[in-house]
Every structure is written in structure tokens, then in C-alpha cells.
User: Fold these one by one.
Assistant:
Number 1:
Amino acid sequence: MKVLKFGGTSVGSAQRMKEVAKLITDGEKKIVVLSAMSGTTNTLVEISDYLYKKNPEGANEIINKLESKYKQHVDELYATPEYKQKALEVVKSHFDYIRSYTKDLFTLFEEKVVLAQGELISTAMVNFYLQECGVKSVLLPALEFMRTDKNAEPDPIYIKEKLLAQLELYPDAEIYITQGFICRNAYGEIDNLQRGGSDYTASLIGAAINASEIQIWTDIDGMHNNDPRIVDKTSPVRQLHFEEAAELAYFGAKILHPTCIQPAKYANIPVRLLNTMAPDAPGTLISNDTEKGKIKAVAAKENITAIKIKSSRMLLAHGFLRKVFEIFESYQTSIDMICTSEVGVSVTVDNTKHLNEILDDLKKYGTVTVDRDMCIICVVGDLEWENVGFEARHLMRCVIFRYV
Ligand code: ASP
Ligand code: MG
């Protein structure tokens, strides 16, 4: 069975939902993971901000606007009064729920529960639409099987067991629709897999059911060899190794969430990136196969902070790097790039939440300098020196030396 994931833009209007429905009804059994309609999660974050600030008027204004948009989508999506009514009731119940927090500002407001409403609504809408079209579609509630453990990492054993049990309840279904992004944590509370996490959901489901393929459907034809928002005339890369895709996803390519790679890679399930606007285009296939001797793509990540620690104590000493890394670890800050010499170490970080504390601790070990607003350029491919052209070699050296 395949797992297909459609992002927010792919289900961003009634028309787009109808197109998704067309794409997924080919008679093959499949699991379909959906994001919230585009813009919804951001709006729910905005609503949560007003609720945090105990501003019910501000929250209500946005809630009402969003609800009327949904009513319009419902009106456009369904042909029959019966389904219009059913969908309106679901939409209303979710909005009433969000609104309940504006009425009683003393109840403990739960942002994660508010954020979950987007996926709960979009999946209910598409499921009703398929049923109205006569398709055997069922909703698999992600909150019944998607779960994280005490370290906030997905719990694959639990996910597999509960998901298979859910699937067994509906042996005759053709399409299983489920929510991306949302899950429960180790304490059973509603949580999520972080922004953009629907790709991760698809990959975890793919691994749990040993899918034949995971398809991530967006609005661009695969992963491009450069950022099309910045560079003209980019073209899609047809084949990538999981590790190449992970680097590109992490270092700038927005099309795929980097967390999505790991479960698929370990379960050896190919991931195909496809375009809802051009469904016949080949897209990008990500697998454990490597294409040798080729540079595939360049990506860039901005707002990077580079930290340089120089210390004569490092000379001929051991254990220095461990002490440095432990500081980053104690503030849960991951290091992206590292370069060392005999008297110094340079690292880059993306997350600057604890930068001041980290810098204070590092100062115990040497002179620390910080470069803010830097950029990492990531060149991905089979980079054996003898196969690499002069420009790429030069570029790589510039990048490396910039940080030393
Ligand atoms: N709706 C969530 C977000 O906007 C998850 C996703 O779309 O992947 O972050
Ligand atoms: Mg996404």
C-alpha cells in the first residue's frame, strides 16, 4: 500500500480538494495524510497568541473570519444539501470548541489543542467529499495511533500496533484519510510533530505499514537543483539519495521536512516528491540508491550564527572538543557545521535561543567570537574531489575556510 501526503496548498480550496480527490481515486487502496488548509495553522497560532494575551475580542475577530471562510469552502465543495449540512456541523463544532476558550479565560488554554483543529477539519471535509462521490473512504484518527515518547520522539512500536489495529477495523475501505502533524504525547495529551510535521507523519505511517512508496504531493515539481525563489531557471533533480535529500531539506529546501527522511530511510521505502499542479510530471525520487559522480543541487540556509573558540589549551590536549560539545548539548542546541584546527574550533548553529548562556560557558575555555547573520551554502552530490569541477571545488573551499 502507498502513503500519499498532501500539503496545505494542495488542499487550500474546495477546487484543490476536488483535484486531490481525483488524484487519489484510482481504485488502489491507500493511506492519505492531509495538512490543514493553507494559512490555517498560522491563523490558529495567531488566535492562540490573542488567547495567551487574554484578549478574547482579538481572538474572536479572527475566529469568525476563519469560520466564514470555511463555510464558503463547504458551500463550494459539496453538491448535496445532506453533505453540506454534515460538513457545516463538523466545521461548527470545531470552531465552537476554539471559541470556548474566549468565553472562559480562566480555563487553562491549550495551544496544541487549538493548533490541531486545522488538520481535524481538512480531513473531515475531504473524507465527506469522497463519500459524497461514492468512494469507500474512512477517517483514521491520528490521535488514536500517532504518539511521541517521553523524549518527545515518535514511538514507532506504539504507532505500528495502533495503526494496524485501526486499519483492521475497515478492511473494505479504499481510502484511509488521516491527519498529518497532530499526535499525542507520552502523557496522552494532544501534541504535534512541530510545524511542517505532516511530512513526518507520512513517513512514520509508511514505515509502520511497510508501504511500497511514500508520496509527498506539493505545488512544485520535485526538489530543484537550486532555490527557485532566488535563482532563475532551476530544474528538478530526478533522483536523490536519502542523505542528499536530508541535507537539502535541512539546509534550505522547503519542499520536504528534514525529519521525514529518517523513518523512510531505515525502512528502505522510497519517497517520491510530486506536484499536484502537474500530476504527470516525474518529480523527484528519493531512495537508498546513489547516482555517482554528480553534483545534484545547491541549497542555502540563512540566519546562521558562527561561533569560533580559540584556545592554546587545545594544543596537544585531549578532551577539549568534548567539553565544548557538552556545553551545546546542555542547552539542547544542535551544531550544524564544524571545523577544527590545532588551536581552535568553529561551529555554526541555527537555534540561538540559549546563545548567551552558551557563549558565557564557552568563555571558560578560550577566546570566543561570534559572527551573526551568516549563511551556509550546501552543495549536495557525489563529491569525490577528482569528479568535481573547479567551481564546486573552489566554492567548497571558500565555504570551509570562511568558518576557520
Ligand atoms: N499544518 C501544519 C503546519 O502548517 C503541518 C503541516 O502542514 O505540515 O505547520
Ligand atoms: Mg510542508
Number 2:
Amino acid sequence: MLVFGTRPEAIKMCPVVNELKGRPGDFDVSVCVTGQHREMLDQVLEAFGVVPDHDLSIMKPGQTLFDVTCGVLLGIRAVLEAVRPDVVLVHGDTTTSFAAALAAFYLRIPVGHVEAGLRTRNLYSPWPEEFNRQAVDVLAKWYFAPTDTSRQNLLREGKPAERVYVTGNTGIDALGTTVREGYRHPDLDWAQGSRLVLLTAHRRENWGAPMHGMFRAIRRVMEDRPDTKAIYPVHMNPQVREAAHAELDGFDRLRIVEPLDVLDFHNFMAAAHIVLTDSGGIQEEAPSLGVPVLVLRDTTERPEGVAAGTLKLVGTAEEDVYREFSRLLDSPEAHAAMAHASNPYGDGHASRRIADVLTGGTCAAPAVAPAEGTAGALPGAVAGEAAPSAPEGGVRA
Ligand code: UD1
Ligand code: UDP
């Protein structure tokens, strides 16, 4: 049984669902969505043609972490008891993943963790995701680590090496099916002839003052550069919408639009001059597309993209965002240095490797050349520190 509930989990789990369903002799597949997200989840299910067998439909407007944790934990019990799967697969670091893994553990059902081993080692950044992923890794039986860095993180915590597999990230599997030559969209036509900035933001620890500050910085930078246009598919969270409209309304070179279908979003990303984001998944996708990303966070658990040079961790303070965004727009050299495609997150066959492991086999890790200047395990990153010398865990701005 695969359990997921939010947009990014769905984007990275649907390729696994389809891979497992393609091997009917090996797997009897059941999909349980929690509905932690509703519209943004359904968009993805439709894009990948996945129809859930069970839907807990837990989402409430303005839900708290208590609502989500209790909703999933109590809701999934009957489903797990009825189906009694041999393994439950959860993904990454959401509260759906944590609560579903805990429920499986309470029923003594083994858990496989897809995208295991990412770390910042700061429980409050990202919050609550760093706790969620560490907690899932405490009780998982199989660890599907996207990179060798995440594998090393798990081994350092004493996880048994024979149950940690480097598979690549299943998000890269998804990316292989979405980006198309000759893709067109009215919003991209609007931006034609300008440098396109693509913006997303949603992290809980950025709600309030940090989010207002970063939006103000982006607007100030763009107001002085008339050859830029921005598209911002705004997350449905009311906290995010309030900040976005308060700071960005009335600026006609920045379009706030509804969340884009994943196919559209990936093609917008491929067309962008710069991506500004606090998203996790986008940090994995952009290096494959060679699009420079300024990461609007204080830490990242994705140091591979920082080391590859495509991502720069800029923090959330208004003046830091102002300085780094201006610099990247004004320096063709700085932009060129970041705009080269690299593939630290896999070769697009992560789902196949996961299926192979679950049938009792093993898997050879995807061939990934370490980025220049890095050997073996990378630390996570912290804003303001150079990635390769950062302490173990994430990278900080
Ligand atoms: C959640 C995850 C986060 C992940 C993010 C991806 C947790 C604690 N957070 O954060 O790790 O990075 O998803 O986007 O697991 N809403 C809708 N429709 C939707 C989705 C959200 O209206 O389709 C609104 C609702 O008012 C909902 C609110 O957004 O209550 C917050 O959703 P929630 O899943 O609690 O938090 P996210 O910030 O989306
Ligand atoms: N995404 C999308 N439509 C959008 C914005 C993002 O399909 O309008 C995709 C994006 O390509 C990535 C994922 O959603 O695969 C990231 O989701 P999000 O930023 O919500 O969550 P995170 O990755 O931070 O957990």
C-alpha cells in the first residue's frame, strides 16, 4: 500500500504506483490518499492517471498540525486493518507520511520510506518536516535514499546498510514525462521577450514576517528592472495567500495565478530565467533543467544541488533576498555559472529500483558523478556558509 496526501508526495509517488501496477505478477497495489491536500492533490492524481482505492479526505481549511496528525492516524487505522498490506510505502517528510508510518508501526506492518535520509539536523527548519523524516526513519524497515549523501546520513545514524538503497529521486522519474519541446501557455506568451522569474513559497517557518519580507524584496528588485516578468502560482494555504496579495498586488509585471498542473509547472520552470522558491521538490527538479534557483530558506536538506552550483541558499531576510536576486539579474556571469544542467538526483529510474528491491532483489545505484569539489557525502547546507564546509546535516543560508 502506498500512502500519500499532498502535492509533492503525489508527484513523487505516482511514478512508483505506476511502476508497481505495471508488474501485476509481483504486486497487488493499493493506494490510500489521506487528502491532506485536496485540489492540489487531485490535480496530480489526474495528471498521472492514478485512482486511489481509499481516500481519507481529511483536509480542512486552515488545518493545524494536530488536525492533520490525528486525522491521518485515526482515519487510516480501519484501512490498514482491512487491507493488511505486506508493506506500507510513505514518502519524504510530510505529516501524512509521519502519521501513516506511525499507524503502520502500531499495527506491526513494515514501512518502506521513499526519499529517506534527507537531513538539516535542525528540528525547526524545515518545521515540522525535519522531525517527520527523522521519525519515519526511526521505524522504517526499507530506506530508499535518493542520493549517496542521504544514504550516508542514514548510516551515520546506525541504520543497517543492507536495508539502505540508493535509488535516485522518483521526482526525476516524473520530470521525464512532463517537459516538452514546443510547449505553449498564455502566461508564457505574456512573458515572451522578458526575463521570466518563477516564484513559489509556502514553508510554515516562513509564514508571517519572513514571507512578507521576501516578497517585498522581490517586488523592489523587479520594479527597477523593466525587462523582467514574474509568474507566481500561489499555494492554496490562506496564510500564504494573505502575504502574497498584501505585498504583490498592483504590480502588473508579476502575475499571481492558481497552482499550476504539474505538466504546466515543469514547462514553466524549463522556460524560466530564474526560479525563486522555498520548495523542496523544486530544488531537485531545477538542476536537471539547468535553471538557477535562489532558495528562500535558511537551511536546505538538498546540498547536492548547492554543490552542483544550480542552487544558492539566500535565506529569508529582505535585504539578503534583495542583494542576491539583484546580483543574479545584473550579472550574466553569475547567471551563466549557475545555469548548467546537472543531475545529482538520479537518472529517472528510481521507481524501477524501488520495485526491484521490493521483489526481493537489490539495485545498483544510479551513476551520478559527484559535483566538482565534492567527494562522497555532502553536508547539508546553512545560509551564509559555503556548502562543502558546512557541518553534517543540511546546508544553512
Ligand atoms: C504541506 C506539508 C509540507 C509540504 C507542503 C507541500 C506538512 C505539515 N506540511 O504543507 O511539508 O511541503 O504541504 O505543498 O505536512 N489547501 C487547500 N487546498 C489544497 C491544499 C492546501 O485549500 O489542495 C489549504 C487549506 O486551507 C489547508 C492549508 O492549505 O488547511 C494548509 O495545508 P497543509 O497540508 O496543512 O500545509 P501545507 O503548508 O500545504
Ligand atoms: N508544483 C506544481 N505546481 C505549482 C507549483 C509546484 O505542480 O504550481 C510542483 C513542483 O514541480 C514540485 C512540487 O510541486 O514537483 C513541489 O511542491 P511544493 O513546493 O508544494 O512542496 P515541497 O516540495 O516543498 O514539499
